[in-house]
């Protein structure tokens, strides 16, 4: 076993490890992280995170402070989301857990069980719903969205409802395209059929309520039964906290869990976790107290302004176009035939900006996803200048090409039939490993992403799972 290290050695090692990460502050990472630009908010959040890191949310009677903060956060969210007095909520570890619990509550609340339930979702719904389906045995019925607006087709969703359907879903907004689905129409369908309607507002729920001229999507819409809303996104709190709100307590029972059928303490959980650190919850409460509702309104307007400015000016850059007008703080760009988004993403990273490439899907082209935080607002001119340079470089290089034979083979492969050796070979072809299966990450990801882009979704999943498996191996000691 490795000998113990001094505190300073540990700090040095942590700094060295973190040096390889994307920056979480400064507004230059336009996915994964959210930056208010408020140093004081960050400081009080980290202080609360540390202060309550050892607290355990498993038992609210042992740590009543956590229960008080959770109820307070749910109360603020209830007001923001225009909820009725009957609303209840639970804190979770993130948007995915909130979605998982919404699906579980819908399944169990309907009296159905594994393999005996379905949910109707637009193809733009977050992948967390597919994860929920996988975990809980709920069949996903996916409905194509409008090819121009990228919004859910409520009529087609209504036609897809079956006898075993327990839930229909809309986004406010969708992650990939940043548009709000027609929630009133979707919720009305759900109410008419006696179904639950979940609104995934994980990424928009702490922004949209503060903006003008936003289509209706909150609990003010009849038929909306639950909403997920993340605090570690646009509430600008440290990672690890989201909220799931239900219109009334009867709807929440399906994701509560209790077990007394063993000789230890009676396990009682409001979420998927049992033991859970109080740190993220306390940090969210502290940051929310410091910023306040009016402060969040100002931050939302700043981030929205940055999104609108980029959406207005980016299409003026030769080679770029706006895929769809944004409803919130997310912008989606694509290219003409002179270049590709994958090369632009590489070029932007070399200039100190992270933009997220998205693969082509269901007729929609590959695109660049931009999540605008309040901290990015003051750097919009700098960002656009870098984007213009990156796009010009991508146009000079020309679109990344994938060998036609390799592309055809990718389409024909059945991932279920591939062995570990086959995956080693495919990862090497993709540029993610050498011939012996050892990981070999390239500095530029455009060729890798271009190949993944032509691979069918199931093969892409299988390849990246194989890659993840090879990444997740113990360090030698």
Query: How much strand content do the residues show?
Result: 5-15%
Order of adjacent strands in the largest pleated sheet: 1-7-6-5-4-2-3
| CATH T-level fold name of the domain at 47-288 | Aspartate Aminotransferase, domain 2
Question: What is the distance, rounded to the nearest whole angstrom, between the alpha carbons of the first and last residues?
Answer: 6 Å
Structure description:
- The protein has 477 residues and is of the alpha/beta class.
- Among the domains are: 47-288, Type I PLP-dependent aspartate aminotransferase-like (Major domain) (Aspartate Aminotransferase, domain 2, 3-Layer(aba) Sandwich), CATH 3.40.640; 404-471, no CATH class.
- Helices cover 41% and strands 13% of the residues.
- A 7-stranded mixed beta sheet has the order 1-7-6-5-4-2-3, sandwiched between helices. It has a 4-stranded antiparallel beta sheet with strand order 10-11-13-12.
- The radius of gyration is 23 Å and the shape is globular.
- The model has no long low-confidence stretch (mean pLDDT 95).
């Amino acid at each position: 076993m490795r000998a113990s290290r001094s505190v300073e050695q540990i700090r040095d090692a942590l700094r060295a490890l973190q040096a390889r990460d994307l920056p979480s502050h400064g507004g230059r990472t336009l996915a994964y992280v959210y930056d208010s630009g408020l140093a004081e908010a960050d400081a009080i959040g980290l202080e609360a995170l540390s202060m309550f890191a050892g607290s355990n949310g498993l038992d609210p009677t042992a740590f009543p402070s956590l229960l008080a903060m959770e109820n307070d956060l749910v109360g603020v969210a209830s007001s923001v989301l225009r909820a009725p007095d009957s609303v209840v909520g639970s804190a979770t570890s993130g948007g995915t857990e909130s979605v998982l619990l919404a699906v579980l509550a819908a399944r169990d609340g309907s009296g159905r069980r594994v393999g005996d339930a379905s949910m109707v979702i637009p193809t733009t719904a977050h992948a967390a719903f597919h994860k929920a389906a996988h975990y809980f045995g709920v069949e996903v019925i996916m409905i194509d969205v409008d090819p121009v607006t990228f919004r859910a087709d409520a009529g087609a969703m209504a036609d897809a409802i079956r006898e075993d359907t327990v839930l229909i879903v809309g986004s406010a907004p969708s992650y990939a395209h940043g548009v709000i689905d027609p929630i009133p129409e979707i919720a009305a369908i759900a109410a008419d059929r006696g179904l639950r309607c979940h609104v995934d507002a994980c990424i928009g729920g702490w922004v949209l309520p503060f903006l003008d001229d936003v289509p209706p999507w909150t609990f003010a819409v009849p038929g909306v039964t639950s909403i997920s809303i993340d605090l570690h996104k646009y509430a600008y709190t440290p990672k690890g906290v989201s909220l799931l709100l239900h219109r009334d307590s009867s709807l929440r029972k399906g994701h509560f869990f209790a077990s007394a059928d063993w000789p230890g303490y009676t396990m009682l959980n409001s979420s998927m976790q049992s033991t859970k650190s109080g740190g993220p919850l306390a940090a969210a409460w502290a940051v929310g107290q410091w910023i306040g509702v009016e402060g969040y309104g100002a931050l939302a307007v700043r981030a929205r302004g940055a999104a609108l400015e980029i959406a207005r000016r980016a299409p003026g850059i030769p080679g770029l176009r706006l895929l769809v007008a944004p409803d919130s703080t997310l912008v989606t760009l694509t290219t003409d035939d002179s270049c590709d988004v994958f090369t632009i993403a590489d070029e932007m990273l070399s200039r100190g900006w992270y933009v997220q490439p998205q693969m082509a899907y269901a007729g929609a082209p590959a695109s660049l996803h931009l999540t605008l935080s309040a901290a990015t607002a003051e750097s919009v001119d700098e960002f656009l200048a870098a984007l213009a340079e990156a796009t010009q470089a991508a146009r000079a290089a020309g679109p990344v090409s994938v060998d036609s034979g390799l592309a055809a083979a990718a389409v024909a492969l059945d991932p279920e039939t591939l062995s570990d050796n086959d995956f080693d070979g495919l990862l090497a072809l993709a540029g993610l490993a050498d011939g012996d299966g050892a990981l070999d990450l390239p500095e530029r990801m455009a060729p890798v992403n271009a190949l993944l882009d032509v691979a069918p979704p199931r093969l892409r999943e299988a390849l990246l799972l194989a890659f993840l498996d090879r990444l997740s191996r113990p360090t030698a000691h």
